[in-house]
Amino acid sequence: MAPTWNVRAGRSSRVFLNCDLDEPLTILVDELPARLALLPEGDRANDTLILVLRSVTPWDNFDGILDSDGGQINYRHGVLILGGLSYVENLQTGVDLGDRDPTYFIEHTCLSLAGREHDRNSIQIYLDGIAVKKKADKKKEDAIKRRARKILFSLLDETQREEFKKKKSFHVLGKDGFTYLVTGRYQHNVFRIEDGRRTFEYCIITKNHVPLYDQMLSQKLLLESSPQMFLNISNIWLLTEDGQRIPQIRNSPINPEATEEARSLWAL
Amino acid sequence: MKKIDPTTTGSISQLNHEGDTKYTWDRKNELEVQAAKEHFDSLRAKGFLVFKVKFLGLKKEAVDSFDGNVGKYLFTAPEMVTEFTPDADYVVSPQMSGG
Prior knowledge:
The complex is a heterodimer. Chain A is an alpha+beta fold.
């Protein structure tokens, strides 16, 4: 069965297809599905680079000849990189694969390369495309992060802002009178603070993905306006004095009685 | 970018994957207020959590909230609301679940 193509942006994988000097390139069309099947499904990204190589050394010695690290491809004597074409978003090269079977893709690559022995150009274009894409993604991510930080800061008081700048976390006075600590992580990031120590750990997340600072803001707003809802939704762990979780009250909606019961049960 | 005057402009900041999307209206313009109410109601109907807030980041709010007697800014706690009032500002969050 031909592998299914999992379109997933933001990550690049490489498939190396090797062909000896005296073999026709088109035999690689048959080899591709098996090669792709070896990749973990999540690694079959839409920007997977399929490199077609012609080897002048036996395949068994292939490892170590070609190094691939951080987008740089170094090839040594013994392997000729004939070409590599891939779909790169917003770059007019390669083949727009979409959801099609990659066999079509490699066939196109092989046929277009037939008869050519040196073609670094397409690889360079690919690498340039990836670099441009990464830069653009980073710029966009930074802008999103800045926006999220801005709205969070507009709802933190001066003390909380200073604390956030230093520790990426801030304390919140809940409407229930308890002090909570919201820390800069996506999960398991809210704690109740009593007598200067963490007594409960809460895990509560937004159902749709939002930047981290937005999620911290949602948690803060909920604690300040409706802590009971916060507690009802959260998964909760009671913490021992040395910060160990006691799992027994996980997933239990918590109320003052349950809290006291748990405390007494664990002699806290 | 056009500067927003918080004294005359209301806002709904909807938290989303891009940070937030801001919807604004002129508090004195009835048509805009009506449209804002409809937007507010549609967000509520979709299950979003809506908080009425005071943006301390805005200069005016910061000045208003400074209490000279205690020498600090007094924080106005947010409220989770179901009814729209044009004079307020809102932050809208996706629903939350246990992680």
